[in-house]
Design a protein that fits this description.
The structure is a single chain. The protein is mostly helical. It folds into 2 domains: 1-105, Orthogonal Bundle (Rna Polymerase Sigma Factor, Chain: A), CATH 1.10.1740.10; 106-179, Winged helix-like DNA-binding domain superfamily/Winged helix DNA-binding domain (Arc Repressor Mutant, subunit A, Orthogonal Bundle), CATH 1.10.10.10. It is built from 8 helices and no strands. Helix 2 crosses helix 4, helix 3 packs across helix 4 (69-97) and helix 4 (69-97) crosses helix 7 (144-151). The longest helix is centred in the middle third of the chain and has 29 residues, at 69-97. It is globular. The N and C termini lie far apart (51 Å).
Length: 179
Amino acid sequence: MTASDSAIVRRVLDGDTEAFAILVSRHHAACLRLATHVLGSREDAEDAAQETFLRAYRHLARYQERERFTGWLFRILVNQCRTTLARRRRGDARLADAGIELGSWDEDAAEWAERDAMLRTALARLHPVQREAVLLRFSADLSYEEMAAATGVGVSALKMRVKRACARLRALLGESIHA
């Protein structure tokens, strides 16, 4: 039988630091997938996921067994993605002030299937809070309560963000198909 995440956390806190690798192997792909969708860059996503696991390890004693480990980890990841986006916006603003034209942030989309490229493009056009909400709900498969814990936003506000994001995605994808 496979040990639960909580049991592995207890092992790590009891001194079995090697056990943390189990948590990384279980959750790395999901973190990387979510971060890639939020940040739009595989390289930035890898950095965010790595930083997330470093922070999780450092603060593992703060994890409380009553919450799902994935939700706790995604809360760290969401904050890391927000920090990365804020840094990127500051850097983009400095480049724009210098008169440097920015290229497309979605360099990997050409390698993906057309359907996935259209979805990524549509996601990129969403407002960041809507994109974050829809990805946490559908990509990370979090409940609204887990999303609220991860983002610090109320459940009703998150439901509205997801609803608006889905409506916007339908409209954007409809435009792409008919273009």
